[in-house]
Design goal:
Helices cover 41% and strands 17% of the residues. The chain has 350 residues and is α/β, with parallel strands linked by helices. Helix 2 packs parallel to helix 4, helix 3 runs antiparallel to helix 4 and helix 5 packs across helix 6. 46% of the residues are buried. The strands form 4 sheets. Strands 6-5-4-7-10-15-16 form a 7-stranded mixed sheet. A 4-stranded mixed sheet has the order 11-8-9-14, with helices on one face. The protein has a 3-stranded antiparallel sheet with strand order 1-2-3, covered by helices on one side. The two termini are 37 Å apart. The site of 5-S-methyl-1-O-phosphono-5-thio-D-ribulose has 18 residues, from helix 2 and strand 9.
């Protein structure tokens, strides 16, 4: 199965509409920035690296028809669109990283004609997509070494093909292990409230022929106690400079459970998910989403009284002391994280 979550096709952004899965594999074509904003907000495209790819293309989409006559005017357009796309979702670092990266190309080429700058923005957005495909395979290469034959892995949310351009981070590690001929079993937490695990992760693992079992989120503790989990591997939305990691709500709980049962807990993410501007996880903005996501089953069937108070943070932060290692495209980072993250990322940017 070769699936591309996001690409540029016929002058539009082509996306898998992830809200339709697992019922249908349906693509949507986006040719205006408001529709992209909504696609991000309402999770038609989701997962940190895929959000980076969408935001990069989004910047180009937003300014490709700009009528600006000089760089000053163009730069104002660009800033406005960058702010607009940034307002869609706050937590995934990749979204902001991609916006900053594409916008910086404009500034660096400010003396060139606007038409050329537009072309360069497009090239940069395409580069982000190509690099994500390579980075995820590299995460798979490094992480695959940690997986033993017959391992059983627990994961949460979706950190696979659908959350990236075409391979996955946490699931990329599993795909690589399988490609190397290792047998693996995967338990997937359903991931309340929006069921990314149940709807998306099981779907893509089954398509890849991987032995997958769906569990309710509250089954994880019992499963670990029964000795049925060898490793936990999750993705990440933002990693602070000390290794504290934001990921889907429920990840922190899994990390505590893993520590309690002496099970290694791994985070898999590309370098573009790291935010070295923040000291620790306290500074990671956590998105709070609508009550209806909790009071209704996937916006259809009410399961709680209409006006009940709801608290619905989409992410939580796992402190670095609960993380055994962070698997990146540049290699595996082990504690002490502050020192080792800086070392790896500095070496990389030289
Ligand atoms: O709200 P979502 O579905 O965008 O949340 C996604 C996650 O939490 C993923 O685990 C994370 O982005 C890593 S994706 C490789």
């Amino acid at each position: 199965m070769r699936i591309k979550t996001i690409e540029w096709k016929n002058n539009k952004i082509k996306l898998i509409d992830q809200t339709k899965l697992p019922k249908k594999l349906e693509y949507i074509y986006i040719n205006d920035i408001k529709s992209l904003w909504k696609a991000i907000k309402f999770l038609q495209v989701r997962g940190a690296p895929a959000l980076g790819a969408a935001a990069g293309l989004g910047i180009y989409l937003a300014v490709k028809d700009s009528k600006a006559k000089n760089f000053n005017e163009f730069s104002k357009d660009l800033d406005k669109q960058a702010r607009y796309i940034s307002s869609s979702r706050p937590t995934a670092r990749n979204l902001f990283w991609a916006i900053e990266r594409v916008c910086s190309i404009a500034l660096r080429n400010k003396n060139k004609p606007i038409s050329i700058i537009k072309e360069l923005l497009f090239k940069e957005a395409q580069k982000i997509i190509e690099e994500d495909a390579t980075a995820c395979r590299s995460i798979g290469f490094h992480g695959g070494k940690l997986i033993k034959n017959n391992d059983t892995i627990l994961t949460i949310c979706n950190a696979g093909i659908l959350a990236t351009v075409d391979y996955g981070t946490a699931l990329g590690v599993i795909y690589k292990a399988k490609e190397e001929g290792k047998k693996v079993k995967v338990f997937v937490c359903e991931t309340r409230p929006l069921l990314q695990g149940a709807r998306l992760t099981t779907w893509e693992l089954m398509k890849k022929g991987i032995d997958v079992t769906l569990i309710c989120d509250n089954t994880a503790a019992a499963l670990m106690k029964e000795g049925k989990v060898d490793k936990v591997i999750t993705g990440a939305d933002r990693i602070a400079s000390n290794g504290d990691t934001a990921n889907k709500i429920g990840t922190f709980g899994l990390a505590i459970l893993a520590q309690n049962h002496n099970i290694p807990f791994y985070v898999a993410a590309p370098i573009s998910t790291f935010d070295l501007s923040i000291r620790n996880g306290k500074f990671i903005p956590i998105e709070e989403r609508n009550a209806e996501e909790v009071t209704q089953i996937f916006f259809k069937q009410p399961i709680a009284p209409r006006n009940v108070k709801v608290y619905n943070p989409a992410f939580d932060v796992t402190p670095n002391n609960l993380i055994t290692a962070i698997i990146t495209d540049k290699g595996i980072i082990k504690p002490p994280y502050k020192k080792n993250i800086r070392r790896l990322i500095k070496v990389d940017s030289r």
